[in-house]
Write a structure and sequence with these properties.
Elements (H helix, E strand, L loop, with lengths): L10 H30 L6 E2 L1 H6 L4 E11 L3 E4 L18 H12 L7 E6 L2 E6 L1 H9 L4 E10 L9 H8 L6 H37 L13
Parallel strand pairs: 1-3, 3-5, 4-6
Antiparallel strand pairs: 2-6, 4-5
């Protein structure tokens, strides 16, 4: 009996497979979130800190030290509001390498620096550490260590006004149907791109089999009309 050596994948490959699966699940949640947002016409985007700069000068600003912040209270971003959804699932693949690097460091137990947050009212905005928060959220972490800077703003905040609150909940342009169709088109194009080589190979195989096969005749008599 011939001995066949058993293949044991290296820890590095196992780790890569795990973090790739974690990323794939996060991207899948982002896709489903976009679909749900299109159907319900409710925004699934992070709040944008740049909107505060547009309403006027800040009242005051001070550093509030290191804190443990619940991730559910982090609802906005400074400069990356369109790269992650409201649950910090990645919306694009252009920073996949960075996401996997952070996830790999977490899996190896490597300590990561605290994230930088800006607190405006009861909401926290990410200045630095979007990928760390995204990975922590994907791992089911409830809170994260952060260096917090507090901004004091005079007047109503943009997301607290009734008009802005409604616009954050509803998506006016494009319509929900258009967003769903666009999402399905992009997903369909990726599916066709992935499966096209297999379909072509299957077609060649079927054509080859049919050319070499005999013409099958029915085993029952045909009635003449």
């Amino acid at each position: 009996m011939q001995y066949v050596p058993r293949y044991n994948p290296s820890p590095a490959l196992c780790e890569l497979g795990t973090i790739n699966s974690l990323y794939a699940r996060a991207r899948s949640r982002a896709h489903w979130g976009q679909l749900r947002s299109a159907l319900t016409r409710r925004s699934d985007r992070l709040l944008n800190l740049a909107e505060i700069d547009a309403i006027g000068p800040l009242g005051s600003c001070h550093y509030d030290g290191m804190q443990t912040v619940p991730i559910r209270h982090i609802q906005g971003s400074h400069g990356r509001a369109y790269d992650f959804d409201a649950d910090f699932n990645p919306l694009r693949d252009h920073n996949k390498g960075r996401w996997l690097s952070v996830a790999g460091a977490r899996q190896r137990g490597k300590p990561l620096p605290p994230v930088d947050l800006v607190q405006v009212g009861g909401i926290y905005f990410v200045q630095d550490g979007h990928h760390r928060i995204s990975v922590a959220r994907a791992l089911g972490q409830q809170a994260i260590e952060a260096k917090v800077t507090v901004w004091k703003v005079t007047g109503a905040l943009p997301w607290e006004t009734p008009k802005r609150a409604r616009s954050h909940r509803r998506i006016l342009q494009p319509t929900g149907a258009e967003r769903v169709l666009g999402w399905l088109r992009r997903g369909g194009a990726r599916f066709v791109e992935r499966t096209a080589p297999r379909v072509r190979q299957l077609a060649i195989t079927v054509r080859t089999v049919l050319k070499g096969s005999l013409v099958l005749r029915p085993s029952f008599p045909l009635r003449s009309r």
